[in-house]
Design brief:
Helix content: 25-40%
Distance between the termini: 17 Å
Number of helices: 6
Strand order of the largest sheet: 3-2-1-4-5-6-7
Radius of gyration: 17 Å
Bound molecules: 5-O-phosphono-beta-D-ribofuranosylamine
Order of helices and strands: EHEHEHEHEHEEHEE
Strand content: 25-35%
Number of strands: 9
CATH architecture of the largest domain: 3-Layer(aba) Sandwich
Number of domains: 2
Length: 215
């Protein structure tokens, strides 16, 4: 890939295993993509350690330091903009983002969800799929809109549920898929190959080649 570096701003609240996969597969890989900044709402998020270990700037924005959600998201958006971020990646970020951030990065915020949306949205997608008894669940990467896990779907991959699966055994297989699918989606976006269908703005289209390549 030639041209400028495509810069990611990654928001995490916890372990950050998906941040790690972005660091290994994108930031330290051959693609012209880097993690410009990692932001957390929780000072004890292990993802912050992973960022620092990779020499990536890490910042904490405590919700309690702001008047409301809008103020919190405005401060985060200011930081992302100051870092020249092209794409905001919610990777285990446990807060709903408000228009204060979304309007500053239109069609430039993506989220990773551990189920096949629109099934099992919310904070416990793995547990909910297992408890429901579905035989197939999976992973979704989608654009973020103002709802909870409702934005246009970019990539999905199915994961079979075994009759003897536990939350831990299923979570392990889901995370393995996540660690592959999220970097793949980011590479497609960075290459300019992901858009929304002109006749149905809910629907993502993926071009066969990047816009610069001959069709
Ligand atoms: C992932 O399962 C993701 O789907 C969900 O939160 C989890 C984050 O895991 N949104 P990690 O912090 O990347 O390890």
């Amino acid at each position: 890939m030639t041209g400028p570096i495509f810069r990611l701003g990654v928001l995490v609240s916890g372990s950050g295993s998906n941040l790690q996969s972005m660091i290994e597969k994108l930031h330290s890989g051959p693609a012209a993509i880097e993690v410009a900044v990692v932001i957390s709402d929780r000072p004890d998020a292990y993802g912050l350690e992973r960022a620092r270990a990779a020499g990536i700037s890490a910042a904490v924005f405590l919700p309690g330091d702001y008047r409301d959600r809008t103020g919190h998201d405005q401060a985060i958006a200011d930081e992302l903009e100051a870092r020249g971020v092209d794409l905001v990646v919610l990777a285990g970020y446990m807060r709903v983002v408000t228009p204060a951030l979304l309007k500053r990065f239109p069609q430039r915020v993506i989220n990773l969800h551990p189920a096949l949306l629109p099934a099992f949205p919310g904070a416990s997608g793995i547990e909910d799929a297992l408890a429901y008894g579905v035989r197939i669940t999976g992973v979704t990467v989608h654009f973020v809109d103002e709802g909870t896990d409702t934005g246009p779907i970019i990539l999905q991959e199915a994961v079979d549920i075994a009759y003897n699966d536990t939350v831990a055994s299923l979570a392990k297989r889901i995370h393995d898929v996540e660690h592959r699918l999220l970097p793949q989606a980011i590479e497609l976006i960075a290459a300019g190959r992901v858009g929304l269908s002109p006749d149905n703005p809910r629907k993502v289209t993926i071009r066969r080649h990047s816009p610069s390549a001959s069709e």
